[in-house]
Predict the structure.
Amino acid sequence: MADMVDTVDTERTANLRVLTQLPVASLESVTSRFPDIEFVEVPTEGALPEGVEGEVLLTFAWGSPNLGEIAQRGVRWIHTIGTGIDRFPVEFVGDRILSCSRGASAVPIAEWTLAVMLAFEKQLPERWVSDPPERWNWAELGSLEGKTLGLVGLGGIGCAVATRARAFGMQVQAFRRTAAPSPVPDVEVVQQLDGLFAAADHLVVAASATAATRHLIGAEALAMVKPGVHLVNIARGSLVDQEALRAALDDGRVARASLDVCDPEPLPEGHWLYTHPGVRLSPHISWSMPGAVERLLDTFAENLRHYLDDEPLVGVVDLERGY
């Protein structure tokens, strides 16, 4: 929390300098916990002032044009406040540690996911009326209870979605790259995507964006989905082949696609995703909630304490796997 001061080795903190491309004024939730550490703001482009060095770099999810120069200024550990590194210039990392704020946005994204699934089942906002309807007290609405949620990915976001879906009485299947049991009770972990595609009433994409997952939801996958499925993408736009999705929407295999992400971002004016009747598109905002940025920074603050205590960091990126 912002009002807590971390107890660490004062000699170590006095000798540590954190370079930050985020404005120092925006880091009060971190700097208040480590009053003895020097935080030095560095530019996101152009040359750095002479003599500026630091052991730690706090940066954005997309890095910066001058990241290579900054990394050469004594940096041993880089932390990005993003929850993924698909846009990060990893070629500048070298043998340094790279960590991210993975899982910090799980709560708001999971709430968003349940919101769009409920909107699909309850036919909202279509069921709001501004004139007398043909019939009162009658509608044929759906329900989440008894429906099957198919999760592609069971990381922090996937687990948060699964927990909330189980509270609504949904059956949850989740695909993950290992056979490890689910951290969430009563979630069936599957190793084959085809079975998950065929069973899911709501198919939620929550996997990391890597070269291996690009267009994971493509023509082949969409040929296997349960007819009338609701597709939700809160991961990255690159995981869904949008042209294959358009074909699946047009022939009814996908009843609706609720997309908080797309490819590219920002989406250009006139793109078909804006106007297709089967698409509900939002501009990558599912992470938003009061204190959302502080949650991202809390992960860095936690890691900073671990770093000072020579403990393993959380959210460390495997550069070979890309997440």
Summary: The chain has a mean pLDDT of 95.
